[in-house]
Design a protein that fits this description.
alpha/beta, D-Maltodextrin-Binding Protein, domain 2, globular, ten-stranded mixed β-sheet
Length: 313
């Protein structure tokens, strides 16, 4: 019994001492997109509870694989955390992404939202039905700005093309921000974008929204029809971002990170800030709940990637 008590003391001391230095949250996309927004927002909130600086760090490249690989290889001490979507997507897309599911411990989901189908206002397409009609009349002639293979816009556009039975040409960029800049410049005509990337430009009239990728629309994105109302009831695509720690991180440290994130996401001011960006705060009740959701969603996401034929060597 005395031996067991002595064995527990180091873990207790570690948990009580954590954190004693800044925490980094790494995201695999550049500034300007939903990954960047959710990372900076949750970092700001978590540092209020943790009592140390929480630094948001952009590490774009390889569809998020560079960031994920860095965190997977980091010391499992709670000082390097990843903000990402479901790993099954890149694990299905890439031959060797550099990591596996077992390399991470889920902490909590942050926020969930739909994508928004937007076009440059100079494009003569006013709604989703016109978009589908145009795409059918001119197969492959509509250029879609995407945030990279495996990104939310890439998945959403691929699912849309299958549901609408149209051929679109996707152009890959290193994140949602650069993708939307190409639409604004007229180099591409449309995008399936995460809401935080485009809400400001929609309000300013710089982009024309055609639909939200949810059947009934979203209260966080008012005034934009859902896919049923817009004329494509068989199409729906949502995304989320969540925090992960390297495998081997002590349970007490994972729980400390979970509690700090959930406390911030419970604040009405934060929930309102997320809603303005067209998303909903969706904190997980526990790391175990988040892990269960990830495991449940994995097979379907892998199937979608497989059936789309998308592959990055």
């Amino acid at each position: 019994m005395r031996f067991l008590l002595l064995l527990c003391i180091p873990l207790q001391v570690w948990a009580q001492a954590y954190p004693s230095k800044p925490v980094r949250i790494v995201v695999g996309y550049p500034p300007g997109g939903s990954g960047d927004f959710t990372t900076r927002m949750i970092a700001e909130e978590m540092q209020k509870s943790l009592g140390v600086s929480v630094i948001a760090e952009n590490k774009p490249g390889a569809g998020g694989n560079l960031a994920a690989t860095e965190v997977a290889r980091a010391a499992p001490d709670g000082y390097t955390v990843l903000n990402a979507w479901h790993h099954s997507i890149n694990l299905a897309l890439y031959k060797n992404p550099g990591y596996a599911h077992k390399d991470f411990l889920p902490i909590t989901k942050i926020a969930t939202g739909p994508t928004i189908v937007v076009v440059n206002p100079n494009v003569p397409i006013k709604d989703l039905k016109e978009l589908i009609a145009y795409a059918r009349q001119y197969p492959g002639k509509l250029f879609v700005a995407s945030a990279g293979f495996g990104s939310t816009p890439n998945i959403s556009a691929t699912l849309f093309a299958a549901a609408a039975d149209v051929q679109l040409t996707q152009v890959q960029f290193k994140g949602g921000g650069p993708a939307i800049q190409s639409v604004l410049a007229g180099d591409t005509q449309l995008a399936f974008s995460t809401a935080p990337t485009v809400m400001g430009m929609i309000r300013a009239g710089r982009l024309r929204p055609l639909a939200v990728s949810m059947k009934k629309g979203s209260p966080s994105v008012p005034g934009i029809p859902g896919t049923e109302e817009a004329g494509l009831p068989g199409y729906e695509s949502t995304f989320w971002f969540g925090l992960y720690a390297p495998a081997g991180t002590p349970r007490a440290v994972v729980m400390r990170l979970h509690e700090a994130a959930v406390k911030g996401l419970a604040r009405q001011e934060v929930r309102d800030k997320i809603a303005v960006q067209g998303m909903d705060a969706t904190p997980s009740a526990s790391p175990e709940q988040f892990d269960a959701e990830i495991r449940a969603e994995g097979p379907e996401l892998e199937r979608l990637i497989r059936e789309s034929g998308a592959r990055v060597e």
